[in-house]
């Protein structure tokens, strides 16, 4: 079988894979971007001004990723502050299971950084609440929302990813069982289309609804499969992840290899968060595979972000190919994840 990673690489042409990267100090750029993100942080609420609840989890995830790449960073107090302020409302703050998944993954990352058991306990509590969303009318999977109105990709991908992450950190077999069960359902759900990209969700008949191929749906699944591979000692999950990753890169990049959403402006406040999530997960897949094409994809996007989508205060905008328009905590943290992803693989 010819893997998509081998098949699609030549189709990008030379633009994506030939540009030099030696002059770019991704770590320095990521540091500057991380400091700029704090402009939006609200010390009293523990979240970020001008953006939503789940987006704030991703803003904090960017800072946690920065801390992991550069231990000299000083964001652990910020994570702790947010945790202390919001620890009692984590499972009641939102009516959406995917929101809980974002926060669970953040606290798992915080646990990895600090080994503070309270963070891992919070992630387990969030997962337990997510598990209440199983079973849907589609013979498995979890609902997107607690009102049970929609079965979609992102909630189920997050459920898989949180389960697989917890499996590796607790070695409790129940989490591995959940991750395997979720993946078996997801793989057969129809949300992965014939192009090996993932549509938004299922319709009322439990068929692929053909909705937008968003970058974050192509991303979260990668981290989940990487963790599941490690937890189960099964490399087949990595092969599947690479197929999805390259199919998404092929479909969602322009002729210069820069990542775009099908719809970027005027698509709602959530869309501006998506691309950074894809970049973060691609970096995890690269760490597991050392696939050169994935590294080059990260680098070429980080270069464009810094060169074309940044203002004089190092704030980062929505369109990574440029020109810079305006920035908020969502656009900035998303692009920042791209910088951090490139920094995390530099020299690796």
From TrEMBL:
Query: Which N-terminal stretch is annotated as signal sequence?
Result: 1-23
Q: Which GO molecular function annotations are given, in alphabetical order?
A: hydrolase activity, acting on glycosyl bonds
Pfam families attached here?
Glyco_hydro_76
Q: Which GO terms describe its biological process?
A: carbohydrate metabolic process
**Key words of the record:** Glycosidase, Hydrolase, Signal
Q: What is this protein called?
A: Six-hairpin glycosidase
Q: Which organism is it from?
A: Aureobasidium pullulans (Black yeast)
